[in-house]
Every structure is written in C-alpha cells, then in structure tokens.
Design brief:
The complex is a heterodimer of chains A (about 700) and B (about 725). Chain A is mainly beta. Chain A contains 6 helices and 56 strands. Among the domains of chain B are: about 130 residues, YVTN repeat-like/Quinoprotein amine dehydrogenase (Methylamine Dehydrogenase, Chain H, 7 Propeller), CATH 2.130.10.10; about 100 residues; about 160 residues, no CATH class. The chains are: A mainly beta (about 700), B alpha+beta (about 725). At the A-B interface, strand 1, strand 33 and helix 4 of A face strand 29 of B.
C-alpha cells in the first residue's frame, strides 16, 4: 500500500523514464561561403557538402530554408542578384537556385575550368566568375537565366577572388602574387598590383590573394596568404597601407554597407575589423585603422560578412557566429544578441512512437535504431539497468548523388520514406524478432517525384508529401502499394515550400507551414482547405496537433507560442492568456528555436517542447510565470516540501539536464527520448586547427 | 620614511661656460619662511617668493664691483647685508631701490663671509680667521683685525650653529693638505682648533654640515670616497685648558655611500633630521654609476628612502629651508619639497603601513621605539602623528597615575619584601597599558630574577606567575627565569613557561626534563599544576572499562601470535591475565603530576639535531622511565582513548613517536645493553610491528576505495542510458 502510494505521488509529480541517446553521429559540414541579401535581410550559407542554407536575419536568425547538397557539388562562392541566388564551385558550374522550392534551378558550365569565385555587380545586371584558366567571365543576368557575355583579358594564373566597383565599370581580381583591375567595358587590365610574398619559408610559395574588396572611392582592400590586409589605391595602382594581421592566411574580407568598415577572417579563427577613421580627432583626413579582433572560431574562418549591426562568420568549425557590433545597436534585444548556430533548425530525427524506433537522417544515408529496454524502477536521478541494448536495425544508403532532404518513419514503425531532390522512396519494413528486412515500394505514383517534407498519418494509412508551390500530395498506403489520392493546395497560392507538416491523431486534420509563415489546415475527410491560421511575423519552427483536443500548437522562431483551435478556427483561451500575459523574459531570451512539439497521452495538459539546450514540459493547468518569478525553478521546487510546491510551480517545467539536444519527444509509453549530440564530439571530428605558437611549446 | 615631492624651478642659472660653478654663491633665508635670498656669483642679489616661484626684488652692484659673499638677512633689524669686493659691507632695507645709495662701510681686512642665524646677531668671518659681530664691527669699521690663521692656511667652509640661544661659528681650513676645524664660541669668546682626520692624500671634505642636537654639535662631512663621517663636539667649551697639541677630532663612519666608479667630485649632503640626510651628486645604489641623483638616506637603518634623478650637471650645491631642498643642477635652481616622517623599526621593516599625510590618521598601531625608549624627548615631524602620539601619551599617563612607573617598580623590586613586590607587580599589571607591557614585563621579570639570584630567600612566585601569564614574556627576554623556577622547584611556573615560551633552547628543555624525571612523584603530588593538564592525565589513566561500557556489538578478537600483548616488567604487580590483548599494560609508569609536566615537555618546540646531544645526558633509569611513559601514551592513543578526552592541550601522536625515536637514537647502545630495558623494547617492537601491519592493510583498502570512487565517476559517458528524471 505504501509503495503504491509513493508510486502514485511520483507519477502525479511527473517522474519520467528517459532514453538518453548519444549514438546519432550527426556531423555538420564546414561553412564555405556566406552571402548577404540586404533588401530582405537573408543570409545564404554554402557548406562543404554542397548544401545551401538561408537564414532570416530579421527573424532571430531562423534557418528558413535548406537546399540539400549533392555529392560532387561544393560551392566555393555565393552571390545574390536581387532575390536570385547563384553559386559557383570547383566543378566549373554556375548554379542558380530555386529558392522558393529549395532546389537547384539550373546549372551552367562556364567552360573555364574550376571556378574560384563569383561576384555580382551592384546594379544586378551582371555576374563575374573567376576561373582556374585565368579568365574572368562576365554573364548577363536575364529573366530566368544567365547569358555569357564576354571574357575579360585572359591572365596567366588563376583568378581567386573578384570584387566589382560599385559603379560596375571596373572589377578587381585577386590572383597569385598580384591583383589586377579590369575595365569591364573594354575588358582590358588597367592595373597590375604585385603582392609581396611572405617572409622566410613562405618566400618560395606564391602569395594567394584570397579576397579583394573594391570600394566606391577607389580603394581596394586585399587579404592574402601571407597574412596581410593591404589597402591599395586604384588611381595610381599603389599600396597605401599594409596590416600584418596573422601568421597564417587572411581568407576572407567583407565591407559594411556604408563602406566605413572592413572585416577580415583568418586561418587562426579570428575576425579582425578595420575602420575608416580620422587619424586625428576632429580632422578630415581618414585612414584604415585596425580596431577590433574577435575570436569565435577554432578553425579557418572561410567567410565573413558585415551586416548592418553584426559580423557574421563561418568556417571550418561548422558553426555560424553572429557577433553584434554594440556600437551600432541602439536597443539591446534578443534579436541583436550574440548567437552561435551549431545545430540545424529542423528535425533530423523522426520516431515511431508506438514501437520505439528512431530514424536518423544523415546526408547520404538513414539509420534506424530500436531503443533499449529496462525493467525495474529507480530513484530519480539514477540510471536504470539496461535489459536490452539499443539496436541498429537498418543502414539505408541513398541512390544517386543527391543528398536527402527529408525523411520519416511511420508511427507504427512499418514504413520509411525519404526524399532527395530527384526522387522519393518508400520502404516497407518487416520486423519479426531479430530479422529485419525492407522492401521498396516500387510503383510510386509519378506525382510523388520529390518532397520537401514527408509525414505519415497516425494510423500509418496515409502518406503526406509536401511538394513544390505549397502543395501537399496525399497517398494511401496499403500492404503492398501506395496509391495517389489527391493533391491539397491552399488558396493563397504562395510559391514557398512547405517545411513542416502535422497530422492529427484522429486522421481528420493536416496542418502545413511554409517559409512564408503561412499555416494552412486541411480537412482530410473533405480533402480541402479547412482554414488558415492568421499569419504571424515570425516563422514556425515546430508545430503539432493535439491528440485529444485537436488544437494546433505552434512555436515560432521568436519563441512565441500559439495554440489554435482547429474546430473553432480561433486561438484557444490558453493561447490568448499567454499573449495577454506575455512570456517570461528568460524564455524569450533563449537563442535556439524549438524544433519539436509532442504531447503526453496520459496528461493532455502536458506539452513537451525542446530546443538545443533544454526540454520543457508546459503544463497548461498551472499558472503562467510572471516576469518577476524564477523561471528555472526545478531546483527550488525540489528543495521545497511537497505541500508548498504547488504554490510555487508554474506552467514551464524546464529541464536542462540534457544539453545539445537534436531531438526530444514523448513515446507512446510515456517515456521520453532525448537525442544528444555533444559539441565536444563534433569538435573531435574536425581536422586539427592551424598550429599556433603558444608560450613554452 | 622620507619622501620627495614634485619639484619646481625657482629660477634659471647662468653658469659660466665649462665651469664647475653654478653661478650662485649662496641662498639664505629671508625674514619670511617663504622667501629666500639668492646671491649670484657676479653682481646681483635677488629675493624670491618660493611658493610663487617669482622674484620679489633684485639689487645689483655697479659694473666692476663684485659681490663677494652671499647676502644675508638680519632678522633683528630687517636689513639685508652683503659684502662687495671683500672689504665693503653694504646694508640696505627692502624698500631701497639701489645698492649704490645703501649704507656702506669699508673694513680693514678681507671678509670671508657674513653669517646669520634666526633671532641672532650677524657674525662676520674674516679671511684670516678673525671673527666679529657685525654690530660691533660697524661701530668702528676701520678697527684692526687680527690674523688668526697662519700664512698658508685658507678657509674652505664655514657655518654658524645656534645652540641654546648662543651662536657657535665653525669653519674649516686647509694647510698643506691638512684640514683643521675651528670652533668659535661667543661670550666668552673662545676659539678651539681641531684636526680633521681625512684619508691620507685626500683633499678637503666635499661637503660639511653642522647641526646642534641634544647639547652637542654634530658635524657631518662627506669625503670623496663616499664615506659620511660624524664627529660630535660639545657645545659648551671644554672646561680643561686647551692643550698645546691639536687634538684630532674623533669621528665615526655614519654611512658609506656608493661612490660609483672612482671618487665623488661634486657632492653635497644635508642632514634633514636626526635620522635622515639628503645627498646630491652621488650615484643611486641600484642605478649604475650616474652621479646625478638626489637621495634621501636614513642613517639609522642605512636605507635609501627616496631618490630622484636630476637632469643636467650637478654642482654639489644644496640648501635646505623650511622643508624644501634647493638644488642647483643643469641650468635651473630646483625647489624640491620633502617630508621626513619619524622612522620606527616597524616601518623600516615594512610592518607598519605608512600613513600618508593626506590620509586621515588613526592612532599608530605600533608604538614608536623612540617614544618607548626615550620618553618624550623626540618630536615627530608630521603634525598628525605627533598629535596622535601625544594623545596616547597623555592617556597612558592619566591612566597610570596611581600606579608606579616601570622605573619606580624596578627600583622597588630591588629592595622591597616579597609580599610588597607581589602586590606592586599585580597593581602595575592591572593598570598598565597593553602595549607598554611588551617592554615592561620583560624588564620587571629580569629585575625579579636578578634579585632572586642574588638573594636565595627572595622568591615572589605569584609575581613571576603573573608576569608569565601576560603572554609578553619569552625565554629570550628573561633567559634565567625557567632555570630559576627549576632551581626553586616551582613546577607550576615551570609548566607555564613550557606552555607559553616559544623559544626555549633544547638544552634548557633537557634540563627541565631531567629535573622532572628525577623529582619523586610524592613530592610532585603536592604541587598545584594547571587543572586542564591534570584532567587530561586523569582521564588517560582511568581504565576505559571502569567508567563506560564496551561499545555495542564489540567482541574482542581472539588473541593470536601477532596481537600486541605487551609483557610488562611490572606484570608481577597485578594479577592480570597474561595474554589478553585488551588488558595491555595500561598502568601509568609515572604519577599524574609528573605525567602532566612530561606532556608539556613533549609539546615544546625543538629541532632534532640540537636536542639529541642533550638527550644523551639523561641517565639510563630516566630514559627507561620516559620510554615507559611514552609507550603508555602511545598505547593509549592507539586505543583512541585520547579522542574522548576534552582538553585544550595534549601531545599529538606524532610528537610522542618523535620523542620515542629521539630517545632510542640517543641511547640505543645503552638500552641494548641494559637488561631492564629488554622487555620494554621488545614489547614496543611488537606493538609497532602490529601497527605497521594494520596500516599496510589500511593502505590496501584505500586503493580499492579509490578505485570504487573512480568507477562511479566514469560510468557516465555511455552512448545510451535509461535514466529516471523527476520534474516538479
């Protein structure tokens, strides 16, 4: 009786069995290039695996879109032309992306050998690419395509970096041991500026001009492999000033919009700012002065950007760092805070809730794991003895060169689907005891050629495939085949791709969210749009439909929470209460978005959310915390006697025991699965950083 | 401590090209403290206001004439006096514009210098050594002037010193490489001549100064070698008739300044107060050989207190008026304010935080040595400090008004009866200030001990005890006290000394030990020892099962070969079961009182190497007794008996074992040959062996416990775990 009583109390208080998983070897790819589009404040990030990510600077640096990579395509450089995004790489191709639908629009061979760099002029009329064969090729940007216009005077030696003069009449090219300035009209070289090599052993090595920046007043700034940032004058073609900033390479440069500041990224992982300041206070004469040094990276900084109020940098250590420039920030908000982006803002893990299976999505393969089991109970904080170890059931490699863009396992664990840009594949999984086999569903309807997001219905009878232009294809699954049912299309006609899908437990509703922040709810019985949730200014980072109340729970990139009653087509009272009260400032100050929402079957008022650093159970029956109360109150509550806990507790039960979370979700049996990926493990897999002389080494 | 403050320039100098002359003859104090008269080498006399750094007035003689001695100010008549062309005395007032119209008088011999001292008449020194007061000279300017000096004797330096309302003029002369000092005293006018000792072949002292202090004239002079010598002259003329032989002036080396490479050339020194001295033109001791430093030295502690590098050439000219140094260097005359604070040993050693003048001053934490030793004869420099000292002094005196001073008490001790002395000492101790006791307690103890040693019947036990209990005594303050206590068999005092003195020499410790061991227990029983120590001994000697039950669940292990039974030589005394390990021989070999005293010995500080030779003096029986006692303690301790005893002081087990080792080291061969010691040693050996075995087993356990702890930590980092989490 006593034991029963304690067990009861514990279950009421919220004792959870947690599967702590660390065997997802997620490895982000190094950052190769960054490009900023100032009109819409988007940053495009090219990674070494060929993928391109687009971040919305205005929306808490939310990763809005991910264009999956391809085996042989590694972009060396990115260029925005208006809202069009181009990249070029060492495979010699120029790529234009279909940004709306998260895929490549077309590729074009430049016929100049490997391309090192691509740059667009300010007018948005031309693209210049620098090729291995020593040519700078100009392309005219036309509607829907680009057209080769001409080669500038061919040089000996590769073109490493390019920068247009803002007027578009000249272009500066960084090469081996020199910088050339071309007249874009005539195509002739105007200046040839020799860059001296490094001293000592570096003398015999060519000096690579990794980056050039051409400013309006005719100043050319260059960064090279001898570790110098040099300031040149294009009228005379002479060196004005040279700053030795590192013993290693200066890999990248970026000028601010107003051209008063230039930042340089080095192999040491530092970012160094130069500012155009008057040398003597109050006098007109100004010069480039080295002002600040930031060290946020352990490895090469491959690309750096100075955007309006921050410096964004990325490199070999795979993280993207946004460092606010405090002198340009007037009001300090969470949007302007220092940020590191280490994990993707989407889910790479899907789980079969009913059978305890986890599907991990890697770029070129999928892994399916069965969770372990334990019997017995233990005191809170203890580890339970493991009766059955977790088991890797499946290692599924993709066909072709394209990387996986989305994947899903059905709740029953019998179906696995994944999609690349080129194809969608569906597999049926047979698990009998120790034998696991899969069969590919061979004849998929033609319309299911690729997907931006895949989702199974809760009874695994249907497959929802988010396709181009915000359409959702519905397919019916039976034992052996997959039959196309219908295509759901919203009325708004937005061309943006859907990045989140959520099906209701009763099979009646499907919700979709796209990059235009639109959330549509479809009635699956009638196969038509039921309603559209009022558009919120921030993107949806996670959403789910409540199994019993059919309320759509949405979490946005700015950390706001909304609960929308699908049946009543309005926000629920709780959601209104949250909006009226406002969320706790500690909640709003978190800098990683919530990437998963699950519900507790046993306690309908519980909602489980997680971001990178914590998971949280929101108890809707408890009062909301006001701004004065302690937000992380678990330790306090633990120390209080049970009777007082109730008065002290609030709706947000945050647990920070598990960190660096890729996934956290409740299974059918009320156990929690957390997938951790310690950053230390990621760092351990990076190549060694450049050797730096430390004291006494 | 002394400090130099920010310097400022009073005026520029016009030194002649390549000349060693600064262009200034002298600086004298004007009537006002803030005004000085600067006389240059050529023709002009200028009065400056020092704090404003500006001239107030300037007078010059005509072209062709020359100012031949520094102008002085007569404070009695408020007139300036200067000598031009050696023979013409000019006297003028502040408001007069031209020197030519001033009063002049031509005298019959060449004047060397006119000296002034505050509130005193001006004194004129002639080049041939004659001295006149200015007033009397001016009444008859053409009066004949006698020649005091011999033909080849020339005056090198002169000064005037004010000693107790009287003036004393000193001047030094040089004649054929020999140096003499003349001291001219007035009313009655006497002139005495002394020979100045200098190193052979060395020219005149570089710089001389004279100051009057404590009834003596202190003459300081700096030689080219860097030595600063002090000679002391009596201010009053010697009663004895001047001897025919010219006496060499006794001198003492006050300070050896670093001379750098070779000799000093242009240097000057000035005493600032009793302990401080300013020197210009000598090298800084830690800054190479450059001689352009102004240094403040403390002559008591021989320490450099402050230094400043002066740019430009140093001319070896320096004056000091109202806490400001006037130094010529390069092309400027700089004024450098300074401050000399009273030096105490505490500040010199860095123990006392130096209070700055601008800080608020609390009462000094450490008594000044001067104040304590010399009473109120010395003055403090800074106003705040002297105030704080004086307030304390008055407080002290007011408080100790009814009780006798240390001196009085010391005198009383020499004569009074025992009861009287004890009463007075008690009175004094209850009334005296804590700080003063530091010094007086030692003094009184010494006096008492001296009297005791002189008079065998005199022994103020209570007074000595009280003095020891002040905690201000230590062995080195009164070395004979402990031995006296032993002699008089005052073991209570002895015990206190052993407890409280941190510095008892090993020889004395051993002497105490010897005495304690040799005194029979019955005699000691009557002694009144400290209660705490007796309590400890009582608790220790009580058998553990007599007053408390055995702990629950404890069952004695069966006796085996290795069990530490100690066969005792006293086994015959008690009918104890021979091989019961619990019934170790736990009878204390010494009485309670002796044990308590021995414990104090064990707890004194010592160093092995010094103690060992003295330990050898103990007789065999004493050694065996002590060893038995130590073994008793050791056995008790290893039973954890001491852990239950609540006392403030008890010997630590390490101390006990150290003493066992020392004793064995000192007497090993003797003990081996002594039959009585055999059983004792073998018992001890067995016990130690069993202990070693126990500890080695414990060592093994430690290893496995450590491993357990580590395994608990490392279980964390798995790839997968199922954990239980509780959320509230």
């Amino acid at each position: 009786m006593q034991a029963f009583k304690t067990a009861l109390i514990r279950s009421v208080m919220g004792e959870l069995k947690v599967h702590r998983v660390r065997f997802f070897d997620y490895m982000p790819s190094a950052v190769r290039a960054l490009a900023f589009e100032p009109q819409r404040e988007r940053i495009a990030v090219a990674r070494a695996d060929g993928s391109v990510e687009i971040f919305n600077v205005a929306d808490n640096f939310f990763q809005e879109k991910v264009i999956p990579g391809r085996e042989t395509r590694a972009s060396e450089a990115l260029a925005w032309v208006g809202e069009r995004l181009f990249s070029a790489g060492l495979n010699g191709e120029i790529v234009e992306y279909d940004v709306d639908n998260h895929k490549v629009k077309y590729t074009l061979d430049a016929y100049g050998g490997p391309i090192w760099t691509i740059a667009s002029n300010k007018q948005g009329t031309h693209l210049a690419v620098g090729c291995e064969d020593g040519t700078v090729k100009l392309f005219e940007v036309c509607e829907g395509k680009i057209q080769f216009e001409k080669n500038l005077a061919k040089q000996k030696g590769r073109i490493i970096s390019l920068s247009w003069h803002p007027s578009g009449s000249r272009i500066a090219a960084g090469m081996m041991d020199m910088i050339r300035v071309f007249d874009t009209e005539t195509g002739q070289s105007v200046h040839r500026m020799l860059v001296e090599r490094g001293i000592g052993t570096a003398k015999s090595k060519e000096c690579v001009v990794w980056s050039v920046v051409y400013l309006t007043d005719g100043t050319i700034v260059s960064g090279d492999s001898s570790g110098k940032v040099k300031i040149w004058d294009d009228h005379t073609g002479t060196l004005i000033k040279s700053h030795q900033v590192t013993k290693w390479d200066v890999l990248t440069l970026s000028a601010s919009q107003d051209e008063t500041s230039v930042v340089a990224g080095t192999s040491e992982g530092t970012v160094i700012q130069f500012q155009f300041l008057s040398m003597v206070l109050g006098q007109e004469e100004r010069g480039w002065v080295r002002t600040r040094t930031f060290k946020n990276h352990t490895h090469d900084v491959r690309s750096v950007l100075e955007i309006n109020t921050a410096i964004v940098s990325g490199g070999m250590d795979t993280q993207i760092v946004m460092r606010p420039l405090l002198d340009k920030i007037e009001v300090k908000t969470t949007a302007t805070a220092f940020r590191k982006i280490q994990f993707p803002h989407r889910n790479l893990v899907s789980c079969a809730k009913k059978t305890g299976l986890l599907l991990f999505q890697y770029p070129t393969h999928l892994e399916l794991w069965r969770l372990g089991e334990s019997d017995g109970t233990g005191m809170p904080g203890s580890s339970l003895p493991i009766k059955r170890k977790p088991e890797k059931l499946l290692h599924l490699k993709t066909k072709g060169e394209e990387h996986i863009c989305c994947s899903a396992v059905s709740p029953c664990g019998e179906w696995i689907a994944y999609s690349t840009v080129a194809s969608l594949r569906l597999y049926r999984l047979h698990c009998d005891n120790n034998n696991v086999s899969i069969t590919k569903v061979s004849k998929l309807p033609k319309i299911l050629s690729s997907a931006n997001q895949i989702c199974f219905s809760s009874d695994s009878s249907r497959l929802f495939v988010a396709s181009t232009c915000s359409t959702v294809h519905v397919a019916a699954l039976s034992q052996t085949e997959c039959k196309f049912v219908t295509t759901l299309k919203s009325k708004s006609g937005s061309g943006q791709a859907i990045h989140l899908l959520a099906a209701s437990e009763d099979g009646k509703w499907l919700a979709s969210a796209n990059s235009a922040h639109e959330v549509h709810v479809y009635n699956l019985k009638k196969m038509k749009v039921h309603c559209t949730v009022p558009v919120y200014s921030s993107g949806v980072s996670a959403m789910a439909i409540h199994p019993t109340t059919n309320n759509l729970f949405m979490v946005h990139a700015d950390q706001q929470l909304f609960e929308y009653s699908i049946e009543q087509k309005q926000y629920t009272d709780w959601s209104r209460l949250v909006q009226r009260n406002g969320l706790h400032h500690v909640w709003l100050e978190r800098d990683t978005p919530v990437t998963n929402v699950t519900f507790s079957r046993k306690n309908p008022a519980h909602i489980v959310l997680h971001d990178m650093y914590m998971f949280c159970i929101i108890d809707q029956t408890l009062p909301l915390p006001d701004n004065k109360s302690q937000f992380y109150n678990q330790l306090t509550l633990r120390s209080l006697p049970e009777k007082e806990r109730k008065s002290q507790s609030h709706a947000f039960k945050v647990c920070k025991t598990y960190k660096e979370l890729l996934f956290a979700g409740l299974m059918e049996d009320q156990s929690l699965v957390v997938v951790e990926r310690p950053l230390l493990d990621i760092t351990a897999q990076l190549p060694p950083p450049v050797r730096q002389k430390k004291f006494a080494t | 401590m002394a400090a130099l403050y920010e310097s400022y320039t009073l005026c520029g100098l016009v030194p002649a090209q390549n000349s060693a002359d600064s262009g200034i003859q002298g600086i004298e104090l004007d009537g006002d403290e803030d005004r000085v008269i600067v006389t240059d080498c050529a023709r002009s006399v200028t009065v400056y206001k020092v704090s404003d750094q500006k001239p107030l007035g300037s007078w010059a003689v005509k072209q062709g004439q020359r100012v031949s001695c520094p102008a002085v100010y007569n404070t009695q008549t408020n007139e300036y006096v200067v000598v031009t062309d050696e023979k013409i005395i000019r006297v003028w007032k502040d408001e007069e514009v031209s020197l030519d119209k001033a009063f002049k008088a031509t005298v019959s011999a060449e004047i060397y210098r006119v000296h002034s001292a505050p509130e005193q008449e001006l004194v004129v020194l002639f080049q041939r050594g004659a001295v006149r007061l200015l007033d009397s000279l001016l009444t008859a300017p053409q009066q004949p002037i006698e020649e005091v000096l011999s033909q080849e004797e020339v005056i090198r330096w002169s000064t005037v010193v004010r000693a107790e309302q009287r003036l004393i003029l000193l001047f030094s002369t040089e004649q054929k490489g020999e140096h003499f000092l003349y001291v001219q005293r007035f009313s009655p006018n006497t002139l005495s001549k002394h020979r100045l000792e200098t190193e052979p072949g060395v020219s005149a002292p570089l710089s001389c100064t004279a100051t009057f202090r404590d009834g003596n004239i202190h003459l300081l002079y700096l030689l080219r070698s860097g030595g600063v010598y002090e000679s002391i002259l009596a201010a009053r003329p010697a009663v004895s008739a001047p001897a025919e032989e010219i006496q060499a002036l006794p001198r003492s080396l006050l300070l050896q300044l670093p001379a750098g490479d070779g000799e000093l050339s242009c240097a000057s020194l000035l005493p600032l107060d009793q302990a401080h001295m300013a020197v210009v033109g000598v090298p800084h001791p830690s800054a190479g050989t450059g001689k352009d430093f102004l240094c403040l030295w403390n002559t008591h502690f021989q320490t450099l207190q402050a230094a400043r590098e002066l740019p430009g050439r140093i001319y070896g000219q320096m004056w000091c008026y109202s806490s400001k140094l006037f130094v010529c260097h390069g092309k400027t005359l700089s004024v450098i304010p300074f401050e000399c604070q009273k030096s105490s040993l505490a500040t010199a050693m860095g123990k006392l935080k130096q209070t700055n003048t601008n800080e608020s001053k609390g009462p000094a934490l450490v008594p000044s040595w001067n104040d304590l030793l010399h009473g109120s004869t010395t003055q403090t420099h800074t106003q705040g400090k002297s105030r704080s000292l004086s307030t304390r002094r008055t407080k002290t005196s007011s408080k100790t008004q009814p009780c006798p001073t240390v001196e009085q008490l010391a005198e009383d001790i020499k004569v009074s009866a025992v009861q009287e002395v004890e009463r007075k000492v008690q009175e004094f101790l209850s009334g005296a200030e804590q700080e003063a006791l530091h010094l007086s307690a030692g003094r009184l103890a010494c006096e008492l001990v001296a009297r005791c040693q002189a008079e065998p019947g005199f022994y103020p036990h209570a007074a000595l005890l009280q003095l020891v209990e002040t905690h201000y005594l230590c062995h080195s303050v009164c070395p004979d006290l402990l031995m006296l206590a032993l002699e008089k068999s005052d073991f209570r005092l002895c015990q206190f000394c052993l407890q409280l003195f941190p510095d008892i020499p090993e020889a004395v410790t051993c002497a105490c030990l010897k005495t304690i061991l040799s005194v029979p227990d019955t005699e000691l029983e009557r002694m009144d020892l400290e209660a705490d120590s007796l309590l400890f001994m009582k608790a220790l000697t009580q058998s553990p099962d007599s007053d408390r039950d055995q702990q629950n669940g404890f069952c004695p292990p069966p006796a085996d070969e290795e069990s530490c039974d100690v066969p005792s030589e006293t086994a015959a005394l008690g009918p104890k079961p021979p091989r019961d390990p619990l019934a170790l021989d736990m009878s204390c070999p010494v009485g309670l009182h002796k044990g308590a005293l021995l414990n104090e010995i064990l707890q004194t500080a010592y160093s092995d190497n010094l103690l060992l030779p003295h330990l050898k003096d103990l007789s065999v029986s004493h050694v065996i007794l002590l060893l038995q006692y130590l073994r008793f303690l050791y056995l008790k301790y290893s039973q954890d008996a001491h852990a239950q005893i609540r006392t403030l002081r008890m010997p630590a087990i390490n101390q006990i074992l150290d003493w066992v080792c020392l004793l064995l080291d000192a007497h090993f061969t003797v003990l081996v040959l002594t039959p009585e010691a055999k059983s004792l040693l073998s018992g001890l050996h067995k016990f130690v062996r069993s202990q070693v075995k126990l500890y080695s087993e414990l060592g093994k356990i430690e290893g496995s416990l450590e491993a357990l702890k580590q395994s608990k930590q490392s279980q964390e980092m798995g790839q997968y775990s199922i954990e239980v989490l509780e959320l509230f």
